[in-house]
């Protein structure tokens, strides 16, 4: 038995109690089996010993369904159990459900265990960081994949909604700060609208690969056992990510899934900056060119799914490759050349991409924020690292300005508005 693994049951209880304190959810409770309600056949030490120490991969999952997605919890419970028996893989899943006592830890190394405690705020970056810390101590592996499953809203609205903790959610810059300290080779979002160049750019120092959807998705549709099997071979992060996309793609309903390299986001940001500068210069020379640019962007693959004004933000999320191709058709050599360079840089980011051809025929694996409806999110301009490091937000403001009246920069009116899409048939 590995001595550092001794007392893993108590370590888990202690970590979750500490997590509760970090999330401001009440005083930590006494630790130990009786106090925490841990359940399971045999000790965690025995299970760790049976796993023979270090594994090629660990999958650490946070399913934050303390909200209207709790109807798909059955899927994640079954997923945790199916993952537990896969060789060469450690897996641990936190499942947060509605109410003040709705947190479970599932599928830990071959057995299902459960911890019922006071409310945890799964919509906080601090909670994710504390769970990653625990996993690093108790799931020894060469590589780690963090899975975040819940509502997603891309670079502007972030991910996770915890209704029992004041509708809390995680902004991408805050998640990036956690990952900078708790590196994950693969960051996976089982959520809507998260595969964006801005997200990859934000987390590039803490994750090597992002697996996510450009489009809306359906909770409970991912085949987690197949994902676990794709990880069990011990391949590199990029090879593993390709296998994961191939496992998920055919199973998703009217959606997309892709894997992108975060390192490539820097070249894409540079290309996006070049396009912004060229477009700003041309619009200054010829104000009529603004409408030609807006029309080209409109023709790019968008992820509009509803006319509800709460979801208007997502009308500006577009596939960057599809949109760059449309801009490249404009009769301006500087703008056209910059758009072609952007397409090439974005293509280099994409490791593997899958799309539902009937719903998103022009999805190529990576999206970006490109609104043409007359508004630009103020939080995006102030908080997104890509916006601060490039002139893309300045270009968006100029593009969406109407004459000399009004400022298109606006605060998000519906910061908690996420698509609600439950797996069909439930």
Task: Provide a descriptive summary of the structure in words.
The chain is an alpha/beta fold. The chain folds into 2 domains: 3-261, no CATH class; 265-350 and 360-410, no CATH class. 39% of the residues lie in helices and 17% in strands. It is built from 17 helices and 14 strands. The chain has an 8-stranded mixed β-sheet with strand order 3-2-1-4-7-8-9-11, sandwiched between helices. Strand 7 (184-190), helix 8 (197-202) and strand 8 form a beta-alpha-beta unit. Helix 5 (125-138) runs parallel beside helix 7 (172-181). It is globular, with a radius of gyration of 22 Å.
Describe the biggest sheet?
8 strands, mixed
Using the alpha-carbon principal axes, give the shape: globular
Number of domains: 2
What percentage of amino acids are in beta strands? 15-25%
Strand sequence of the main sheet, in spatial order? 3-2-1-4-7-8-9-11
- The low-pLDDT segments are 1-45
Structural class: alpha/beta
**What average pLDDT do the residues reach?**
85
Whole-number radius of gyration?
Answer: 22 Å
Total number of β-strand segments?
A: 14
How helix-rich are the residues, as a percent range? 25-40%
Distance between the termini: 44 Å
The DSSP helix count reads 17
């Amino acid at each position: 038995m590995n001595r550092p693994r001794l007392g893993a049951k108590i370590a888990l209880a202690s970590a979750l109690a500490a997590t509760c304190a970090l999330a401001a959810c009440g005083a930590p409770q006494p630790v130990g089996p009786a106090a925490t309600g841990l359940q399971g056949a045999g000790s965690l030490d025995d299970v760790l010993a049976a796993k023979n120490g270090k594994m090629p991969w660990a999958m650490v999952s946070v399913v934050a369904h303390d909200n209207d997605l709790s109807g798909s919890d059955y899927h994640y419970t079954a997923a945790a159990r199916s993952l537990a028996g896969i060789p060469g893989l450690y897996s641990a899943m936190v499942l947060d459900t509605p109410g003040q006592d709705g947190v479970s830890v599932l599928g830990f190394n071959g057995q299902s265990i459960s911890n019922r405690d006071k409310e945890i705020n799964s919509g906080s970056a601090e909670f994710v960081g504390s769970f990653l810390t625990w996993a690093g101590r108790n799931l020894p592996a060469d590589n780690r994949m963090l899975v975040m499953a819940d509502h997603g809203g891309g670079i502007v609205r972030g991910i996770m909604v915890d209704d029992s903790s004041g509708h809390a959610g995680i902004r991408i810059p805050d998640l990036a700060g956690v990952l900078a300290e708790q590196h994950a080779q693969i960051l996976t979002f089982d959520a809507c609208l998260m595969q964006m160049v801005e997200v990859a750019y934000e987390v590039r120092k803490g994750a090597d690969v992002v697996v996510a959807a450009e489009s809306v998705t359906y909770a409970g549709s991912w085949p987690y056992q197949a994902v676990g099997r794709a990880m069990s071979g011990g391949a590199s992060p990029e090879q593993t990510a390709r296998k994961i996309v191939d496992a998920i793609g055919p199973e998703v309903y009217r959606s997309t899934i892709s894997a992108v390299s975060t390192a490539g986001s820097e070249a894409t940001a540079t290309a996006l900056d070049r396009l912004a500068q060229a477009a700003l210069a041309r619009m200054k020379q010829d104000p009529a060119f603004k409408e030609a640019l807006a029309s080209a962007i409109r023709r790019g693959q968008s992820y509009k799914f509803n006319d509800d004004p709460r979801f208007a933000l997502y009308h500006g999320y577009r596939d960057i490759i599809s949109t760059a191709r449309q801009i490249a058709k404009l009769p301006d050599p500087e703008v056209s050349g910059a758009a072609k360079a952007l397409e090439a840089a974005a293509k280099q980011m994409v490791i593997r991409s899958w799309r539902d051809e009937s719903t998103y025929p022009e999805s190529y694996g990576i999206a970006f924020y490109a609104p043409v409806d007359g508004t630009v999110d103020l939080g995006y301009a102030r908080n997104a690292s890509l916006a601060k490091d490039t002139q893309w937000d300045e270009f968006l403001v100029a593009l969406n300005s109407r004459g000399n009246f009004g400022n298109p920069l606006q605060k998000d009116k519906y910061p908690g508005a996420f698509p609600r899409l439950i797996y069909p048939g439930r």
